[in-house]
What we know:
Blueprint: E1 24-28, H1 41-55, E2 58-60, E3 66-71, E4 77-87
Amino acid sequence: MGCYKSEDSRITGYTVVNVPASTWAVFSTLSDENGSGNYDLRSLKNRIFSEWLQTSNCNILDGGNFEMYCTNKEGYEYCELWFRIEEKQIG
């Protein structure tokens, strides 16, 4: 799990991990429009692996994949799933 860190972030008691530059596929849950934070990660993950991965030209790499929980500017909670990827090698 993760979150963005800024100079104003209160990080006491947390482990800070710098994520190396890479190519990422980022998938976001849709806001439920009432700010309750209810979203369906299972459905999103199923769609990533059964739809997107089957039709994309990318492979998901091991390691470095994470979930990030966020709040947008309207105050609605959502989740992003980050997967480190590379282009499929043909041949």
